[in-house]
Amino acid sequence: MAHNDEGRSSSRRQFVRAAGATIAVGSLAGCTSQIFGGDGGGGLKIGFYGPFSGPASNIGEQKQTAAELTRDLLNDEGGVHGEDIELVFGDSESEPAAGRNAVSRLIEQESADIIGGGFHSDVALSVVEATNNEGVPQIIDEAVSSAIVDKINEQKLWNAFKTAPPSQSYGVGWRNLVSFMEENELGYFPFEDKTVSLVAEDTSYGLSILDSVATELEDIGWEILSEDEVGIDETDFTSLLSRIESDDPDVVLAVQTTSSGAGNITRQFAQTGFENTHLFHNYGLFNNAALETAGEAANGAFTLLNAGPIPDLLGELGFMDAWEEDNDIPLTGSVALSYQNIRVIANLVDSFDSLDAFRSASVDEWAEHVIGHDPINGGTGYISYQDNHQAAWGDADTQPALAYQIANQDTQLIWPEEFATSEFDGSFY
Q1: Rounded to the nearest 10 degrees, what angle do helices 319-326 and 57-76 cross at?
Q2: Residue 20 pLDDT > 70, yes or no?
Q3: Does residue 393 lie in a domain region?
Q4: Please, is 196 exposed, middle or buried when counting C-beta atoms within 10 Å of its C-beta (0-12, 13-18, 19+)?
Q5: DSSP class of residue 323?
Q6: Per-residue pLDDT, 28
């Protein structure tokens, strides 16, 4: 595939100069009209980054596998403007500096037309500057922290859009799930004291969700007994859980992204001696490696995704059957979101008149095009971007939060009721 690298680099240098003026005086209606630049030929090249090594490498492997399958499915359907999609990958190593370097390489050496992927919020906060500096459009995949959208708007990084719902969506999701369990007297609910202990990894993702959950639960009458931070690589929680158990909380809610952290805290929770206490785990237990580490201790625990696979929607798109045919691992949230990321990028680019029209689009034209696009079925919901560059979330017409009960190494979708594929299992309590 031929690439006009000299022309692309020149466009980037021009964009950087124009972007400086944009940051000083720009708005969505009046920011720079400088073109993004492009390689001038060949099919769409998507640069996809994620944690392909380091503590979340198993998740990175799932994301890469899903992205590659999505590419193949889309190419079988004719690709984008009749040309095949090509993927090039960059390893973030779960570190902001490594992620930024990886994305810069994808742009400068691999001549990526657009950047997708992502996982950790801290990494995305660094990468979003790199794509803006290089003048390349970006659809941010799985990173959650609302600080990303704040940064996009404060620094007017109009090339970037964020798909995953923000931190607040987890707080709202847990509040609604707790209310649902109270009203229906599920598990150990209802509780008289309504007390909860919170644990979160010390990342932007973990701490922003901890704050959101605390605010939302306090609003419906729950008392926060403690808030603890743990390292992203930490695996021994015995002392922490022993102290928490002495406070006799009704619920322990942990926020972690790594499989080792989620699996170990679940297993050690069961060993600590909690009685009539529910374990809620934000995101991390929706992972086969975490469930294997936890073993039977995970039975009856709950995990929540702010956006996850919705079987009916994925079935309409043919991805469910394709994934199950080609892979032994479960269709996780990271798998579904990576599929969604590539599909959304392909839809947005395909809706331009041509690949050349996409590559020559100005910052304004790209932003207006994305915001004005009809909702896209991404398999975790319907994706439509708002003026602040965040995809809409929170209901069946956008991206709903989804809650799962763990049963015998399987995640059972139990809530919201309109999307549930399984009934609540009370035999664990």
Answers
A1: 120
A2: no
A3: no
A4: buried
A5: H
A6: 35
Res. 4: pLDDT tops 70:
no
Crossing angle of helices 121-134/204-219, nearest 10°? Answer: 120
CB 327 within 8 A of CB 96: no
In this structure, are residues 393 and 284 in contact, taking their beta carbons and an 8 Å threshold?
no
Question: Is residue 24 domain-resident?
Answer: yes
| Under 8 Å between Cβ of 113 and 308 | no
Element (DSSP H or E) covering residue 192 = none
Considering its fold, how many domains does the chain have in total?
A: 2
Confirm whether 92 is domain-assigned. Answer: yes
Q: Which domain, by its residues, includes 152?
A: 5-165+311-383
Residue 388: inside a domain, yes or no? no
pTM reported for the whole predicted model: 0.78
- Dist CA 403 CA 419 (whole Å): 10
Q: 125 and 204 in contact (C-beta within 8 Å)?
A: yes
Whether residue 269 sits in one domain with residue 415? yes
Question: φ, ψ for residue 410 (rounded to 5)?
Answer: -130, 150
Q: For 358-371, how does the pLDDT look when each residue is reduced to its tens digit (9 = 90+)?
A: 999 998 899 999 99
